[in-house]
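Aim 2 progress update. The chain analyzed this quarter is reproduced below.
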Amino acid sequence: MKRLSAVLGLALCVALPAAAQMYKWVDADGKVKYSDTPPPSNVKTEKLRIPAHAANPPAGPAQKGAAKSGPKGLAEQEQAFRKRQADAAKEQQEQSQKEAEARDRAENCKRAKAALANLELGGRQTRIDSKGERVFLTDQEIAQATAQARQEAAAACN
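Predicted structure tokens:
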């Protein structure tokens, strides 16, 4: 029995350092690889070993506070996820509203410029009166309509 426990103890002592050994190397494609098994013999290898104190750091007062605010529970994660979804939806809605307003402004500017261009083109201009009949505008009425169209185009395109 003593012999079995001595062999088992010796095997554990030999296995512990081997389990802690890490290797780092660059493969043929230029990718950095990490492994606990030795790489092929034709590559340059760097042995890495994690210090014992880094693997199991002592629990100090700073870590006790971190443990309290550590991993969140499922309910907290779900709540945070829903909040992020709501924020993203709100932001997307605001963005689409801004895009719609920009499209409306561009369309209004286009219409105002077209109306101004039509008046500045010259020729006979007509309007429909309250009776539904076509009425030709005088030169003075065309000048007034052109001035008003310029003001509307300036307001719509700014």
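The longest strand covers residues 21-26. The first helix runs from residue 2 to 20. These observations will guide the mutagenesis experiments scheduled for the next reporting period.
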